């Protein structure tokens, strides 16, 4: 059975746009917001991994959420931003066959998210938020933690742990590197 994380407490969310749609993620995961800067392309990566940036001496991968959601490629414009989030993924240690006490894995990973623009931080109350839909919104339901009502539309609240599951991305990267059979 599919388990979906839903929002039950009031919280603060960073809002951003992607292909004209409004999204938000829990501010707890956000470490910083950067203006777009040139990326170093890494060969043999899936299309949604646009490259890496040098963030204070560390290589941080940058994911294009539009590609990850199957909605085309983010066009770089004046307001394009990279949101740096911290993701914990216990599945990565299991995949690597490592002891979960290994600090490099246990501490998680910083990942950049390429978006059209970062907007503002909003506070949402539990009664502002509906459960994720069983279909629609153009992305997998397990990527959504809820839908926040706004004036005439909804704000899609992302479950960043699912959207940026490192173990899922490693699997996709490995599949991208396998030769295509004729």
List keywords for this structure.
5 helices, CheW-like_dom_sf, five-stranded mixed sheet, 182 residues, CheW-lke_dom, alpha+beta, Chemotaxis protein CheW, OB fold (Dihydrolipoamide Acetyltransferase, E2P), disordered N terminus, 38% strand, six-stranded mixed sheet, CheW
Write the layout of secondary structure elements.
Layout: E1 11-18, E2 21-26, E3 30-35, E4 49-55, E5 58-64, H1 65-68, E6 81-87, H2 90-96, H3 103-106, E7 109-115, E8 117-124, E9 129-130, E10 144-149, E11 154-158, H4 160-163, H5 166-177
* Structural class determined from secondary elements: alpha+beta
The stretches of 5 or more residues where confidence is low (pLDDT under 50) are: 1-7, 95-103
> What is the H-and-E element order?
EEEEEHEHHEEEEEHH
What is the end-to-end distance?
A: 37 Å
* Shape, per Cα inertia axes: globular
Main sheet: which strands, in order across? 8-1-2-11-10-9
What percent of residues adopt helix (DSSP H or I)? Answer: 10-25%
Please name the CATH topology. OB fold (Dihydrolipoamide Acetyltransferase, E2P)
Percent strand? 35-45%
Report the C-alpha radius of gyration, rounded.
Answer: 17 Å
How would you name the CATH homologous superfamily? CheA-289, Domain 4
CATH architectural label: Beta Barrel
**Average pLDDT:** 78
Description:
This protein has five helices and eleven strands. The chain is of the alpha+beta class and 182 residues long. It has a single domain, classed as CheA-289, Domain 4 (OB fold (Dihydrolipoamide Acetyltransferase, E2P), Beta Barrel), CATH 2.40.50.180. The radius of gyration is 17 Å and the shape is globular.
């Amino acid at each position: 059975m599919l388990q979906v994380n839903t929002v039950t407490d009031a919280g603060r969310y960073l809002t951003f746009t992607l292909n004209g749609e409004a999204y938000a993620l829990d501010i707890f995961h956000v470490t910083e917001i950067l203006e777009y800067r040139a990326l170093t392309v890494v060969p043999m990566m899936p299309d949604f991994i646009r490259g890496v940036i040098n963030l204070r001496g560390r290589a941080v991968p940058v994911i294009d959420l539009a590609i990850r959601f199957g909605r085309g490629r983010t066009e770089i414009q004046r307001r394009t931003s990279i949101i740096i989030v911290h993701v914990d993924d216990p599945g990565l240690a299991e995949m690597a066959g490592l002891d979960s006490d290994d600090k490099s894995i246990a501490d998680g990973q910083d990942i950049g998210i390429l978006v059209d623009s970062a907007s503002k931080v909003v506070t949402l109350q539990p009664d502002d938020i509906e459960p994720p839909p069983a279909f629609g919104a153009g992305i997998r339901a397990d990527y959504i933690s809820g839908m926040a009502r706004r004036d005439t539309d909804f704000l899609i609240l992302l479950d960043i742990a699912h959207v940026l599951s490192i173990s899922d991305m490693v699997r996709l990267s490995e599949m991208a590197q396998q030769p295509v059979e004729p």
